[in-house]
């Protein structure tokens, strides 16, 4: 199954073209095609509809958001929901905290996973098999088991309610290490040998020869780590205590409790959580899907 | 993992110079002759990861299991070793499970997992098959279908909180076909199904990707051959494609099960377990016992039981769906 990752990595673009190219030249529409188009339309509506409608509705007045029957478009378009949210300085702090957590997770997890992946994939040392097997095995451990003791460890280290509590456990994940190993394993050995002959250090070989060759894996790892941290709710809920430290998802939870029935504010607030990920997605689409597909290989 | 031998290194075997021969032997014997410098360098490269792996994963897991044998309420008294008493307390509650938060939540989550795993697997496979048979703009539709998987559980919870309210969009749509919708999240019958629907909507999109990848690996010739033998599209799908998808189906079912059993965000966010414990989940009970009632040992025991149940279910699923991959 390991090859699956590699194949998607190197042939993703061509395979799309090949697929359409393989089809016999434009056969006539059949009954089954009509069914397929009908489903495509239904699922397009069901996939996009909720987000799209929410995004539009966040420009409605409070009354219009609660109106029954609901209107499709805002009848005056208003910015007031967003103005009210942004005027809350805590809310801006939550966004900043979320960026710090997700940004640090992205940088550290990508770098450290690449380093570990490089050692496991391309160096010989005692204990290598053990560490790789352990990496595969611990991916099966559910969060349920680690949540409480992880909290107690953070408590003992005196790190509760700090950025460290968020970032330390996220800085090198078994899954991304595994992803890196899979990508680096297949590069030809000669790469290092010629680098060594040229007198390059291990670190230089890693940094300027290997890393550029696994850019798709790096991007996929970066996205996976950013997305996981940006959307994380449970861990921040457990380790963060004061409102100024909250990340956005946690902030939204308390914002919800404070503005329980003000749906105009709640849906506008949800946009702050959704839009950064959507922007990332549209820029790095291919890698999102690759990261998700690579996850399929870990079984 | 079945097809993960060391084939790439053998395929790219170097010419048989003395250096090459030595390297080949090293690979074949699989007994790396590590140089001390290389070992040190390798461990330095892995250092940050090893800290996370051993402290925040391995140690912490063992700690969690150990903790379940203690009575611990940080801040009040020191930890007291109580043996299996936490487990005993929980299993004694089985005599009247309806009175026990933990077993109530277990009942809820089993219902939840059964529905969402079937729902998301079927829907994900269906989406993938539809995409596979799309003639144009396949990539665009793939992108569109993937969007629910991107939004965070918190954002979708906020959005669906609004959709599900008594006068919300969902009840409006139902009223168009003459159904008077319930107050979803405040109704003991409908609160859990409401969360199930939301969950299926987000996870099916993510799992679709795996099925797409798996579908691309199925040789077209097999399907063509079946059709030549007179099978119709549905027969070809059911008798050729589905059996070949077994590993992917197992994978999706297992991931769905593991994730489903640990559902927390939506329940915490939308209903906080209510109304009347209708959406109480084990993770919510664990969270409450640990962080609100300060019964850390009891909560640890609950998480160990949850872990064991998840493991047993996953093993059974593997036996049922894809016994072949045991050899991996």
Report the average pLDDT across residues of chain A: 85
N-to-C SSE string of chain A, H for helix and E for strand: HHHHHHHHHHHHHHH
In the predicted model, the low-confidence regions of chain A spanning at least 5 consecutive residues are: 1-24
Approximately what portion of the residues of chain B adopt beta-strand conformation? under 5%
The low-pLDDT segments of chain B are 1-16
Supply the CATH architecture of chain B: Orthogonal Bundle
Helix content of chain A: over 70%
Task: Assign the CATH architecture of the largest domain in chain A.
Answer: Orthogonal Bundle
Radius of gyration of chain B: 25 Å
The description of the largest β-sheet of chain A is:
none
Instruction: State the end-to-end distance of chain A.
Output: 9 Å
What can be said about this structure in brief?
The complex is a heterodimer of chains A (299) and B (328). Chain A has 15 helices and no strands. Chain A has 299 residues and is mostly helical.
Task: Describe the protein's architecture and organization.
The complex is a heterodimer of chains A (299) and B (328). By secondary structure, chain A is an all-alpha fold. Chain A is globular, with a radius of gyration of 24 Å. Chain A has 15 helices and no strands. In chain A, helix 4 crosses helix 15 (263-297), helix 6 packs across helix 9 and helix 9 (174-185) runs antiparallel to helix 12 (215-231). Chain A has two domains: 30-78, no CATH class; 85-297, Orthogonal Bundle (MetI-like fold). The model of chain A is unreliable at 1-24 (pLDDT under 50). Helix content of chain A is 76%, strand content 0%. Chain B is mostly helical and 328 residues long. Chain B has one domain (90-327): MetI-like fold (Orthogonal Bundle). Chain B has a two-stranded antiparallel sheet with strand order 1-2. The longest helix of chain B is centred in the first third of the chain and has 32 residues, at 36-67. Chain B starts with 6 loop residues before the first helix and ends in a 7-residue tail after the last helix. Residues 1-16 of chain B have low confidence and may be disordered. The chains are: A mainly alpha (299), B mainly alpha (328). Chains A and B meet through helix 1, helix 2, helix 5, helix 6 and helix 7 of A and helix 3, helix 5, helix 6, helix 7 and helix 8 of B.
